[in-house]
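Problem statement: downstream parser choked on a complex file, so we are re-checking the raw output for the pyridoxal-5'-phosphate run. The parser issue turned out to be on our end (a line-ending mismatch), but while we're here, posting the original submission so the record is complete.
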Amino acid sequence: MADQLSAAGLAAANDIPSLDRLLNAEALRPALAAHGRTQVVAALRRDLEALRKRALDGGVPRHELDAAAVAARTSAALDEAARPRLRAVYNLTGTVLHTNLGRALLPDEAVASVLRALTTPANLEFDLDTGGRGDRDDLIDDLLCELTGAEAATVVNNNAAAVLLMLNALADRREVVVSRGELVEIGGAFRIPDIMKRAGAKLVEVGTTNRTHAADYENAVGPRTAMLMKVHCSNYAVTGFTKSVGVADVAALAHARGLPATVDLGSGTLVDLTQFGLPKEDTVRETIAAGADLVTFSGDKLLGGPQAGLLVGRADLIRKIKKNPLKRALRVGKLTLAALEPVLQLYRAPEFLAQRLTTLRLLTRPMRDIQPQAERLRGVLAHAAGPSYAVEAVPMFSQIGSGALPIDQLPSYGLAVRYAGSGRPGRHLDRLETLLRRLPVPVIGRVADDALWLDLRCLEDRDEAAFAAQLAEPLA
Ligand SMILES: *Cc1c(COP(=O)(O)O)cnc(C)c1O
């Protein structure tokens, strides 16, 4: 039988080289150097086991048993297993602050600071003036107060945590009055009624979906009321026959009863965005100035920093919040603080902000940059996609994303790819979308209205060459 196999160029099970022989083979050296003996032995065992099975089932081509062939398969398997799961992608979805793609990108100053905090000891909770123990919030609370006009500030893991902590610290087993028009759900898992329950607070809904009046709040206040709360309608708009009560009026009502008014501002910007040609969004400072006693917002939405939840407001309330055991459970790590401080520093120089704060630079990227880029890349993508597709450079609209300014759109430019053949385009567009997603640096676009849309707003000029290089050859 072995002779018959041999004559056909096939190997039998007893022709398979031993593990020891392979481990000493020259061809395995690179794999051993890259991945270490433990992993190489395990990968070789798997490979040899598969060969043995096939040999018993009828034979394996001889060349597959060469040490070089075994080494190549082993290296490929181990390289694949070692490839990071968290990978860089091109965000051409048109949504600048895309929650599923990691929201805000950090400016260089923040990256340098994180790197330093990662690799050197730092005064995270150490007071350099006294030599005594410090509080990690001290690293950023002065800056937050300066930028928002608040008396005090603290920071936790994200805005959902900030809201949970605020409610538990100030409204455990008491009532929180919220307008029915503001009972938001963000991304499925954050719903105001659920967070309330988890925090131990009782939600008292007032008004209707479209209209809430001052009297609705007033009538809801009772002996068990802990606060009046407003929530930013981050991902929807109530339009038509509507009425809501602004922060100043809710705060006045609350204060008249000796209660705090709190605001979950969601995205929470620190500057007036209209100076950059962007839509109006209430700033944290304006919200505090209007009378809010406590404001919570995200670090990685419009603020343009790391994932974090910021709480700013009255000193006595912040003190109470910091004493709550949940604060310890939800506190941020040093990497977050290392990233947050330089980002907040950038806000001290608003004249440079649109250049230095990555999020704002992307949101304000001028059409005179995006349109020519679309025209340059049109031919590149057309070549890569092949003759079955028609690629056009076209105007489109970007979104800010992450619940900021949900209905406002930013004029942008990009590439629209349509199927050039006859018949239904869906399958062909999905195929192209998949090919782009499987590139070494995946390109993430969006299929809608019988086209694949690639919004180029977030492809900055410095990344264009690498982007085009990936598309130099036709996609498989
Ligand atoms: C985004 C958002 C949240 C959740 O913030 P995270 O930082 O993602 O936890 C909560 N409330 C509102 C109003 C939001 O827009």
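For whoever reads this later: The longest strand covers residues 404-419.
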